[in-house]
Amino acid sequence: MFENSNPWRMWIVSVLIAVMPLTFALPLKAKSVPAAILFLAGAWALLRDPETRRAYRRAVWVIGPATLAFVFWLANVAGHDVDMREFDVTSHILAFLLIAANFASPLRTAVLRVGFSLTAAVLGCICLEQHYIEGIDRVYGINNGLWGAIEFGMFMLVLSLIAVAQAMRRELRAGERLLHGFCAALGLYGAILTQSRGPMLAFLPAFATVVLIQSRRTGRWREGLLFIALGVGTALAAVATLHGEMLSRFAAVSEEVSTYSEQDATGAVRERLEMWRTARMAVEDHPLAGLGLNQFGDYARARIAEGKVNATVERYDHPHSEYLEWAVTGGIPGLALLVLLFGSALVFFGRYALHPDNAIAMPATAGLSTACLYALCALTDNVFYRAMPHSLYFFLTLGLAVYIGRQLSPHGQAGR
After folding, report:
1. What does the pLDDT look like over 18-65, one tens digit per residue?
2. d(CA 103, CA 405)
3. ∠ CA 409-415-416 to the nearest 5 degrees?
4. Tally of CA atoms within 13 A in the half-sphere of 382 that contains its CB
5. Which of 127, 183, 199, 182 is nearest to 389 (CA)?
6. How much is the pTM?
7. pLDDT higher than threshold 60 for residue 287
8. How confident is the model at residue 367 (pLDDT cuts 50, 70, 90)?
9. 198: closest CA among 38, 50, 85, 321?
10. Is there a contact between 401 and 56 (Cβ–Cβ < 8 Å)?
C-alpha cells in the first residue's frame, strides 16, 4: 500500500525521474547512473509488486506497441544479418520498458513537474549562450553536433509543452505557475534558435491542443488565449532576433520545392525530396522485409553509383522521415508498426486528457503532447535514430502510461 511506503524512497525515485530528461541532453558519463538505478528498481518492482504489473496491463495500448517494436527490430537485425551495433539505440526500448515501472511507485509529483520544466529552462539557457556568446547561428546543444539541431529543438519543445500545461493548472500556487510559464518561454525561445522548421511547424498544433485541453478542463478560456498570445509573442521575439534568418529558411521551402528535379537536388529541401524519392525506390524493391535496420545510406549510395540517384544525398544515412525510415528498413510491416506506435499512444493519452482528476489528466496531457509532436515531426525528420530524442520519447510515453495505469487502480494516488 502506498500509504506505508518509505518517504525517502519516494523522494529519491522522484528526483531520479525528474533529472532523467536532462541527462539525455548532457554528454556526461555519469548520466547513466540515474538510468541504471531506475532500471534495477523497475525490474525489482515488476517482480515483486502485483499492482505494478496490473498498471502495465492497463497501459497496454502504449506498452504493447513499444514491446512489439523492440522484438520487431531485433528480428529485423537478425534476419538481415546486420551488425548488432546498429541495434544499439533501438535496444534502449527494453531499458525504458523496465524503467517505466518506477512511475507506478509513490512519487512526489511536484518534483517531477518542476524538474521537467527546469530542464527546459536549462537547455534554453544553453541555446542562449551558444547563440549570443559563442555566435552560433543554429544552436544545437552540447550533446549533438550541428546535425543534431533539429532533434535538440524538438526535445526542448516537448518539455516546453509539458511546462505550458503545468502553468495552466489553476490549483497550483501562483509562484509555481509563473515558474512553469517562464521555463516554457525559455525552452521555446531556445528551440527557435535552433532554426528547425519541422519541429516549429509541428509545435503549433501540439501547442494549440494542450491549451485547448487545459482551457476546456478549467473553463478558463481567457487564460488559454493569454497563453497562446504568450507563445506567439515568444516566437516572434526569437524570430526577430535572428535578423530574418528563420523567415528566410521558411521562405526557401516553396522555392526549393518548385525548382526540385532529379538533376537539381541541392539545398536542404531539395535533398529531402531526393531522399524521399530514393526511399520510395527502396520500398518498391523491398516492400515486405525492408533493407534492414539503418541500411538506407548504403542503398542510396549504391543507387548513386548506378546513376539513379543524385549524388547530393550521398552523405545521408537516413531519409529524413521516420515513416519512410521504418518503411525502407522494415518494409510495409515496419511502417504499420510505427503508425501503431504513435496512434495507440495518441488514443490512450487522448482518452484521459479531459479526465476530471488532475492525477490522471495532467500526465495524459503530457503524454498526448509528446506523442503528437513526435508523430508530426516524424513526417519530415528522423526522430528516433539519435539516442537523445529516442530516449525522451520512450521514457515519457511509457512512464506516463504506467503512471496513469496505477492511478486507475482502485487504490490509486501514486503520489502527491
Report:
1. 999 999 998 877 788 999 999 999 999 999 999 999 999 999 999 999
2. 9
3. 125
4. 23
5. 199
6. 0.93
7. yes
8. very high
9. 321
10. no
